[in-house]
């Protein structure tokens, strides 16, 4: 996708595409698979005759921020499609949201959100999503978020079974982590006791409580948030290679 593209521009081509997808022309083949969704919006429309008459019924296209779960490339997709090809590694990406509210045994990979609800039980398989919300039970298998994993009240899991760059402890949730825990950003609405290292920012929201041992570069405790921990808050230290100290 061109780097200079304005992200907030709703251009006419995107509009036409959204309309075409919302209201398929009767008798025409079903909307093309979304394989070309990542096409730059300034590309010429492929079939203006077919869609031009329906511009009046415009719907605003949904904009998705996609992170490829295979190569990590970040890009945007407009429209209602739920799959696209990664512009970098060309893999076909699903970005549907998934809700699991009963026993589940399969792997899901999505650039959308996966929510394991309070009645959901993961028995086996990997749940891989941009955002993963765990409110149920992970008996087997694993949950991995590309951005944030949210652990909700009632979630039951082993610490090894969940991973993500960023961690969110939901309101009402109370967890005591036994293993050393390392995340980039940590946002705490509930209660977390841990030996926690953060390479980004830790934010304790109102009603949240963080206890244990905390090592971080940035710590924010909002009004109404609690902190009862041994702290080491410092900017990242540059490692000095051995033998290079100045005399
Ligand atoms: Zn990719």
Task: Tell me briefly what this model is.
The chain has 247 residues and is mainly beta.
Notes on the protein architecture:
- This protein is mostly beta strands.
- The protein folds into two domains: 13-94, no CATH class; 95-233, no CATH class.
- 6% of the residues lie in helices and 42% in strands.
- The protein has helices at residues 12-22, 48-52, and strands at residues 63-67, 74-78, 83-85, 92-94, 98-100, 103-104, 108-109, 113-116, 121-122, 126-134, 137-138, 142-151, 162-163, 166-169, 174-183, 186-188, 191-204, 209-221, 226-233.
- The strands form four sheets. Strands 5, 7, 8, 10, 12, 13, 14, 15, 16, 17, 18 and 19 form a twelve-stranded parallel sheet that branches.
- Strand 1 (63-67) and strand 2 form a beta hairpin.
- The site of zinc ion has 8 residues, from loops.
Summary keywords:
42% strand; 2 domains; three-stranded parallel beta sheet; 247 residues; globular; twelve-stranded parallel beta sheet; 6% helix; disordered N terminus; binds zinc ion; mainly beta
Q: What sequence of helices (H) and strands (E) makes up the elements?
A: HHEEEEEEEEEEEEEEEEEEE
Low-confidence region ranges: 1-54
Would you tell me the structural class of the helices and strands? mainly beta
Q: What helical percentage do the residues reach?
A: under 10%
Bound molecules: zinc ion
Percent of residues in beta strands = 35-45%
Question: For the terminal residues, how far apart are their CA atoms?
Answer: 51 Å
Count of the domains: 2
Number of strands: 19
- Overall 3D shape: globular
Biggest beta sheet summary: 12 strands, parallel
Tally of helical runs: 2
Tell me the radius of gyration: 22 Å
Instruction: Please state the average pLDDT score.
Output: 81
